[in-house]
């Protein structure tokens, strides 16, 4: 089955835009990590809003305002524990990786547009590898965030020293993180499509040289 460069170009554009939009929305929203404490609030007659949802930059309480997370890049002189310092390092890592993946996608989109118009084999190949590298950056960011969330939960459990409270709290990842997973998969597909387009252009050139 032969696949034309036009079909591959359209497919690369669709999955590439989907990946970019998904990551932009994920970075801009605050539903990466959700803490549902409605049962605990009910047992306390709902006097305090304990439920919250957080993103990369801030935490928001239900029926209350949002407040920014601690700046992970300005804590060297702060009087904090080693475990808290490690959490800040992890926070700083995925805060850098996610926008970096976005920047790589922007460059990939520019080079991809030019390479398709020029039908340039090497540029198509480079664009495919750039998107695959961006997908790897996104996956690393997701992995660090999940590890960060697990470490933060462990730290909170040590501070609370009460398993009864944790039973009444529902903690889960939110739809913002699901969007990052979608972005990762579509970014991976975009890279694969560009590599396939490079192969199509390369085979076409070889046929032309033979003829």
Look at the structure and give the mean pLDDT: 84
Number of helical elements: 6
Broad shape: elongated
Regions with little confidence, pLDDT below 50 for 5+ residues: none
> What is the strand arrangement across the widest sheet?
4-3-2-1-5
List the helices and strands and how they pair.
Elements lengths: L4 H24 L4 E4 L1 H6 L8 E3 L3 E4 L4 E3 L13 H37 L2 H40 L2 H5 L2 E4 L1 H36 L1
Antiparallel strand pairs: 1-2, 1-5, 2-3, 3-4
Helix pairs in contact: 1-3, 1-6, 3-4, 4-6
Q: How would you describe what is shown here?
A:
By secondary structure, the chain is of the alpha+beta class. It is built from 6 helices and 5 strands. The protein has a 5-stranded antiparallel β-sheet with strand order 4-3-2-1-5. 28% of the residues are buried.
Summarize the structure in short.
With 211 residues, the protein is an alpha+beta fold.
Please describe the structure with a list of short key phrases separated by commas or semicolons:
five-stranded antiparallel beta sheet; 9% strand; 6 helices
């Amino acid at each position: 089955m032969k696949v034309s460069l036009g079909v591959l170009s359209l497919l690369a554009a669709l999955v590439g835009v989907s990946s970019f939009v998904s990551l932009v929305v994920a970075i801009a929203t605050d539903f990466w990590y959700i803490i549902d404490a409605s049962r605990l609030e009910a047992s306390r007659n709902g006097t305090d809003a304990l439920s919250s949802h957080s993103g990369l930059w801030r935490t928001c309480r239900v029926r209350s305002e949002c407040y920014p997370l601690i700046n992970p890049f300005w804590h060297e002189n702060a009087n904090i524990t080693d475990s808290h310092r490690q959490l800040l390092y992890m926070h700083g890592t995925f805060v850098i990786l996610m926008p970096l993946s976005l920047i790589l996608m922007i460059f990939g989109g520019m080079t991809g547009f030019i390479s398709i118009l020029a039908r340039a084999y090497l540029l198509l190949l480079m664009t495919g590898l750039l998107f695959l590298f961006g997908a790897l950056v996104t996956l690393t960011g997701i992995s660090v965030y999940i590890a960060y969330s697990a470490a933060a939960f462990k730290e909170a459990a040590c501070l609370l020293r009460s398993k009864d409270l944790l039973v009444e709290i529902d903690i889960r990842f939110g739809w913002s993180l699901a969007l990052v997973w979608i972005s990762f998969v579509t970014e991976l597909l975009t890279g694969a499509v560009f590599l396939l387009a490079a192969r199509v252009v390369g085979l076409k050139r070889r046929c032309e040289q033979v003829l």
